[in-house]
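hi! just following up on the protien thing from before. the input was this:
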Amino acid sequence: MITYILVVDDEPDVESMFRQHFRRDLRASRFVMEFANSASAALEQVKAIADPSLILILSDINMPGMSGLEMLAHVKSARPNVPVIMITAYGDDETKKKATTLGAAGLLTKPIDFSLLRHEIDRRLEPV
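and the predicted 3d structure came back as:
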């Protein structure tokens, strides 16, 4: 089974940054990273990736159009078992509370701590 991680961010350099940090995992086919540059594009990908292949969504909060928090509500409705970790430059208590209330599995602040993110991914790849 192919395991997917979906990364949602409108910044153009995010894909290359994630591919660089996880290049060994991607080469070894531990998982596949898909990228969406908007919340609406991400929702289309969420529909297209079959269960249970999608194991994690990483999403920026502040994006033009639909925000990551607005997208989170749609994702949790469509795929309640898929954890979503929100990523933001603003890690204040209000943002954390709102993300948690909407069903986020966690909140990472920018710049991203890739060792912490790797731990989160590894935890989801472990056999149950």
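The domain at 4-125 is CATH 3.40.50.2300 (Rossmann fold).
The helical segments are 14-21, 23-27, 39-48, 68-78, 93-101, 114-125.
cheers
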